[in-house]
Specification:
Largest sheet: 5 strands, antiparallel
Shape: rod-shaped
Order of helices and strands: HEEEEEEEE
Helix content: 25-40%
Distance between the termini: 108 Å
Number of strands: 8
Oligomer: single chain
Structural class: alpha+beta
């Protein structure tokens, strides 16, 4: 007499083990990909803040470049880069500064009082210092982790 069921039990066990190995490998692959994705997102976020800080200031200065428009002031311990402009015989001042760990942008009339907490929050920043020298705007700043960034922009309309 021959047994017919013994062959099927071994092949069923083999299929079950094969599915188990597949499930374990799939789980490991998902975990490895999730970790790689998380690292990529963290690095992108760190570089995003750096790019925002520098690009915002550069683009603002290039867009507002007019003769004698830029200045640097310190008000109540806050160093600010000022950009003066005229609209319909009114004088306005735009302040770029760092206050309470955030780079801020404030656009007010020249006769209005500067209040650092009124500025629109742009991006987290550690510090911001701006100075002018011979038609060159020098900017020194740090991000929230203390990494320093220094760059300069030549005034095109300064001469």
């Amino acid at each position: 007499m021959k047994r017919k069921g013994s062959g099927h039990a071994i092949s069923g066990t083999f299929v079950f083990m094969l599915l188990g190995v597949f499930a374990v490998i799939s789980t490991l692959l998902v975990l490895l990909c999730a970790q790689a994705y998380r690292n990529t997102v963290d690095q992108t976020a760190a570089h995003r803040d750096e790019r925002i800080l520098q690009s915002f200031i550069r683009n603002t200065l290039r867009g507002e470049d007019k003769e004698n428009a830029f200045g640097s002031v310190e008000i109540d311990g806050v160093n600010a880069l000022t950009i003066t402009s005229r609209f319909d015989d009114e004088v306005y001042v735009r302040y770029l500064y760092c206050y309470e760990g955030v780079l801020r942008d404030l656009f007010i009339g020249a006769e209005d009082t500067f209040h650092p907490d009124f500025g629109e929050e742009v991006c987290p920043a550690g510090s911001f210092t701006a100075s002018l020298s011979d038609g060159l705007v020098m900017v020194e700043m740090t991000d929230v982790e203390g990494r320093p960034y220094t760059f300069s922009i030549a005034q095109r309309c300064a001469w």
